[in-house]
Every structure is written in C-alpha cells, then in structure tokens.
Amino acid sequence: MSGTFHAVMGDRGRLVVPAEVRARQGWTTGTPLVLVEGETGVTFMTREQAKAHVRAQFRGSHAVDDLIAERRKAAQQEDAE
After folding, report:
1. I need a surface site. Which of 12, 19, 43, 61 has the fewest CB within 10 A?
2. How many CA atoms lie within 13 A of 22 on its CB side?
3. Do 49 and 55 meet the contact criterion of CB atoms below 8 Å apart?
C-alpha cells in the first residue's frame, strides 16, 4: 500500500491531499496531522501514527537505563574532581 502522488502548493501554503490517499488513510476533514521533517523529506501522519512511529524507533532500546548510567558516570566524574 504505497504510491507516488502529485500535489501542488496552493496559496497560503495549502496542500490538497489526493482523495485516494485520504481514503486509504482514513483521513477526513479536520483530521489533525503531524508533519515530520527528516533528512529525506517530510512525512505526513496522524498523531497515532506518529506515536507508533516513535515507539517503533525506540523498541528494544533501553533509553532510560542508558540515561541513568550516563548520569551516574557524570556524577562519579564530578565527585572525583
């Protein structure tokens, strides 16, 4: 379920999302979208899709454990000084 679509930037920065994309994504009038800018361009997604995307990026990661270890190491270095 992917494709390439054409959209033209209108006045005041408005874009019209093609009907086929809106239908497949379940986007209706008023659906809040998040724009994520990355190295390869901009991605449009709903808030729920953005949350799932972030969770997937951190899956298997031990960010909290890494942060705690980093803080402990910094504290030990400060104590040693």
Report:
1. 12
2. 12
3. no
pTM of the complete model: 0.59
Per DSSP, helices labelled H in the chain are 19-25, 47-58, 63-80
Quote the tokens at residue 31.
Answer: 């659906």
Determine the number of helices (DSSP H) and then strands (DSSP E) in the chain.
3, 2
- Mention every residue, 6+ apart, whose C-beta is less than 8 A from residue 17: 7, 27, 44
Q: What is the pLDDT of residues 22-39, one digit of tens each?
A: 999 999 999 999 998 999
Phi, psi of 45 (to 5 degrees): -155, 160
- Give the model's pLDDT for residue 32: 95
Residue type, 54: V
